[in-house]
Amino acid sequence: MTEKQNKLGSDDRFVRWQGVLRDHITFLNSLLLTISIGIIGFVVTLIKDKEFRPICMQKFFLTIGLIFLCLSIVMGLVTILSRLCDFRTKLKKINREIQNTTNIDFDILKQQMEFYGNVTWASLYAQIIIFFIGILSLIFAISLIYSEKLF
């Protein structure tokens, strides 16, 4: 196998795995958004029940959990928006490469792509961490509220 064939094989593998990574990021982001929205809907329905009366620490952890899940949704939306901006910037760069435009725009576009990529990863990690804090808080609140029935 020549060096050129080996490089082409590596490029193909890189592109394929980059696609897999992109698909997994999209799936994880969508999954966390869906679960967050579903849980918030469940808790709001629970709060509307007249027999549901959390007290003191139960209210605190319930409120904290809801706030963190709402923040998780916001971070998920930031992730989506930064990915869209990143894709749009990449398309601009590819379009300029096709048109054989040579100017300093490429450096600016590369900087923008790097910025949006960093924002995407940072907001995804923040979404995951905030989501788990919210879930743990809600689990703790629910276990406090229903401790008599659970234990």
Can you offer a commentary on this structure?
With 151 residues, the chain is mainly alpha-helical. It has one domain. 89% of the residues lie in helices and 0% in strands. The protein contains four helices and no strands. Helix 1 packs antiparallel against helix 2 and helix 1 runs parallel beside helix 3. It is elongated and about 70 Å long.
The biggest sheet amounts to: none
Q: Which percent range fits the helix content?
A: over 70%
Overall morphology: elongated
Number of helices: 4
User: How big a fraction of the residues is strand?
Assistant: under 5%
Strand/helix succession: HHHH
Number of spatially distinct domains:
1
Ranges where pLDDT stays below 50 over 5 or more residues in a row are none
Determine the mean pLDDT.
Answer: 88
End-to-end distance: 66 Å
Count of DSSP strands = 0
**CA gyration radius, whole angstroms:** 22 Å
Q: So what's the oligomer here?
A: single chain
Derived from helix and strand composition plus strand pairing, the structural class reads: mainly alpha
Features:
mainly alpha, about 150 residues, single chain
Structure summary:
The protein has 151 residues and is mainly alpha-helical.
Give the secondary structure arrangement, pairings included.
Blueprint: H1 3-48, H2 56-98, H3 105-145, H4 147-150
Helix pairs in contact: 1-2, 1-3, 2-3
